[in-house]
């Protein structure tokens, strides 16, 4: 291919010079834009252009990548934020006709005359060679780990229902602590459902179309529907994707016991890692088959068939705990050594999980609604006597996170980070 | 711990000797029971007992595993099929007081007097040291790969709605081919919804509470709501768990074009693997961030943030394709070499995906409803003019698989395989 003439220009310094040039962006900075402006930009070789952010930092961007990521309205729908350009019509060896620097960003003209414009902030945010960002603003609040002594200000029902600030406070607590309490909720299923729907729709499962409500009447022949104590667990280990959030509201209670138990699973995982890195690895890699098969017409198992108790993303961060020892299917795939390691690690996990210093108990008196992250916080209850009516809901993970993100991020933020 | 007296008995031969002793069980056999009976059983060492299935095959089972997997009604609820015994009350070094063989299976007495009984079939099915089973009956039908010339008998609406046999035929086709057509469906949203609900409930998303119905009005800020052609893709690449099944029914059409396209993604993946093992590896390992951010209050991305196009289980089997190039977010995490490899592999994938020998076209005339596996079959459409009203639904993966399994497996089968 003929090497084309490339304009290589020095960049006009257009942003405030007071922006620290070596600042490591955090999520907030990234959303606001880092203010980074390159000192030079030009052609690096046949396949890439470069941007010198400063004397020590240079990014390179592939020509093909630039063309594929053109953000003009013809190539990327400004409303749907979907790619409109057909990636496969772009020549794999495409080279720009010209590269020009402007105050707003990098202007590139392509062989067919198409013009692309890339904001400096956007280029800095998405620099991949090298990666310059240090955090991912889409990921949300960093978890704040807690133990039995967690003191969390309850959120007020009126504030959550009627103000964006109250809603934001509620979602911030759920993202940060994995749990939040709302007080002053009317003692009805309808009010509890309205609270859930203030966040997003309710996830339907084979148990319930929407919000559920029950007494200990053994209606579903499940230990959940008895008066027995339940150890700390997460729900839905048998689903490919367990429910993201759970909400409980004890509408009526005349009796003794029946307190609710919550444990910060991320904290217990951290403690396990400190105590035994090898046990942590075992619970992060041993695949546990699970099932839900109580109802005659139900036989739910996850796809793939089994997941570890501790689930990590590709970057190594723990993002999900799946733990309900009662729903575990027959272990029939481990070697003798793996089986011994698993049981040993499980005992260590159990010891930490049931340590009183990790157990947060709450009597959940009527009017006080709890919502918690079923991917992080394990729940249980003490045995009870008497009459108890409880209602609750499963909420979907992606939609809860979407709601939290949408409250945090403006439309401009979306454009910058997506 | 004091070594206890163990009864070591030779097994009574109680099953028919005509059962082939070296038969490799398949899924069907496994469900029916292999009929395998051990020739001897006894103590192997402090931690394990053994079963000699024949002169060449011996299984060992850990004492702890046996106690943890006791299937008596006190330890495992016969209806809910949940573990009732508290695993953590079992001594890690537990040893049986006695081991006895009976016609029904292995009888074990524990130090506290508890008696456990394990059916021979169950022990054979779940032998883990070594693994004796050769297939997983919970996984369902093996996929039958297809190309443009797929000829699939349509299923009749009446049969699906009114008979278990029709329903089973429908689900069998979906599991085997990833697609099925139902004919004779009344041209109403209500009848289409009833058909969907014959399978299971409809998955709610931010798009729709239940069944959706639309004309080309860009209602949801998504290219799906236009008259444009859409290349083959899967939906919901931005969900942590994409919808399992999709159903479409073209209720009204006066115009030209608008045919539906279906491609067997598992077959295209196979072709890619044959053409270039390295491109296949690239699409199986390169993480692609995606998003849905068209609606103002929506910003959905998956957790973890990015998934490969080709997703494999721990055993190495391809189980899910996630591919919608238009919903791809900015690639900002790949090295230059990874980026080049990715684009090269993506072009090979695209070439196979758009090969006419892989494209199944169907005009989907009103009354002919398609349902397809959104984890396997990619769909698209040609551009169209005129008036077109289409309705459809997302159905949840786990509940669809549960429905198919429940039709296949009896209550006894459940006991044997879980």
Shape of chain A: elongated
Rounded mean pLDDT of chain A is 89
Main sheet: strands, sense, barrel of chain A: 6 strands, mixed
Regarding quaternary structure, what we see is: homodimer
Largest interface: A-B, 93 and 94 residues
- Helix % of chain A is 25-40%
The portion of residues forming beta strands of chain A comes to: 15-25%
Q: How many distinct beta strands of chain A?
A: 20
Q: Unreliable stretches of chain A, pLDDT < 50, 5 or more residues?
A: 1-27
Radius of gyration of chain A: 26 Å
Trace the largest sheet of chain A across and list its strands: 7-8-18-11-20-9
In CATH, what is the class of the largest domain in chain A? Alpha Beta
Supply the number of helical segments of chain A. 11
Our measurement of the CA-to-CA distance between the termini of chain A, rounded to an integer number of angstroms, reads 33 Å
Please, could you describe this protein's structure?
The structure is a homodimer of 418-residue chains. With 418 residues, chain A is an alpha+beta fold. Chain A folds into 2 domains: 40-134, NE0471 N-terminal domain-like (2-Layer Sandwich); 155-407, Double-stranded beta-helix, CATH 3.60.130.10. Chain A has helices at residues 27-32, 63-68, 120-126, 157-162, 164-177, 189-199, 265-275, 277-285, 336-353, 397-408, 411-417, and strands at residues 40-43, 48-52, 58-62, 98-101, 105-109, 115-119, 155-156, 179-183, 212-214, 230-233, 245-257, 260-264, 288-289, 306-307, 310-312, 318-321, 360-362, 369-373, 377-381, 384-395. Chain A has a 6-stranded mixed beta sheet with strand order 7-8-18-11-20-9. Chain A has a 4-stranded antiparallel beta sheet with strand order 10-19-12-17. Chain A is elongated and about 80 Å long. Mean pLDDT of chain A is 89; it is low at 1-27. Chains A and B meet through α2, α9 and α10 of A and α2, α9 and α10 of B. Chains A, B: This is trimethyllysine dioxygenase. Chains A, B: Residues 158-394 form the TauD/TfdA-like domain. Chains A, B: Its EC number is 1.14.11.8. Chains A, B: Belongs to the gamma-BBH/TMLD family.
């Amino acid at each position: 291919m003929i090497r084309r003439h490339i304009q290589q220009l020095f960049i006009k310094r257009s942003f405030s010079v007071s922006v620290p040039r070596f600042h490591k962006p955090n999520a907030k900075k990234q959303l606001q834009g880092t203010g980074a402006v390159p000192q030079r930009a030009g052609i690096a070789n046949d396949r890439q252009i470069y941007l010198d952010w400063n004397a020590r930092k240079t990014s390179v961007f592939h020509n093909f990548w630039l063309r594929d990521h053109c953000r003009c309205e013809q190539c990327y729908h400004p409303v749907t934020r979907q790619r409109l350009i057909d990636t496969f019509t772009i020549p794999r060896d495409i080279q720009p006709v010209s590269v020009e620097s402007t105050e707003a960003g990098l202007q590139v003209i392509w062989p067919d005359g198409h013009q692309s414009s890339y904001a400096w902030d956007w280029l800095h945010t998405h620099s991949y060679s090298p990666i310059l960002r240090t955090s991912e603003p889409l990921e949300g609040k960093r978890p704040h780990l807690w133990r039995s002594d967690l003191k969390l200000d309850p959120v007020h029902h009126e504030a959550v229902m009627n103000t964006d600030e109250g809603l934001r406070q509620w979602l911030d607590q759920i993202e940060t602590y994995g749990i939040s309490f709302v007080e002053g909720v009317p003692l009805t299923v309808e009010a509890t459902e309205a609270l859930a729907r203030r966040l997003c729709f309710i996830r339907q499962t084979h148990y319930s179309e929407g919000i559920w409500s029950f007494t200990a009447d053994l209606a579903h022949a499940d230990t959940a529907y008895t008066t027995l104590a339940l150890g700390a667990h997460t729900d839905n280990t048998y689903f490919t994707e367990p429910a993201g959030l759970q909400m409980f509201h004890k509408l009526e209670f005349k009796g003794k016991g029946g307190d609710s138990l919550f444990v910060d699973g991320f904290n217990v995982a951290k403690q396990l890692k400190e105590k035994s890195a090898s046990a942590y690895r075992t619970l992060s890699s041993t695949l546990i088959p699970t099932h839900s098969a109580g109802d005659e017409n139900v036989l739910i198992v996850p796809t793939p068939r089994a997941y570890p108790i501790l689930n990590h993303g590709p970057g190594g961060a723990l993002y999900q705990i799946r733990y309900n020892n009662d729903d575990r299917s027959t272990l029939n795939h481990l070697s003798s050594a793996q089986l011994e390691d698993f049981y040993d690690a499980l005992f260590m996990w159990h010891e930490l999980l049931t340590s009183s210093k990790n157990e947060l108990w709450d009597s959940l008196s009527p009017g006080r609604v709890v919502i918690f992250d079923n991917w992080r916080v394990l729940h249980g209850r003490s045995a009870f006597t008497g009459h108890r009516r409880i209602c609750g809901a499963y909420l979907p993970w992606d939609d809860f996170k979407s709601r939290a993100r949408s409250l945090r991020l403006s439309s401009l933020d979306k454009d910058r980070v997506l």
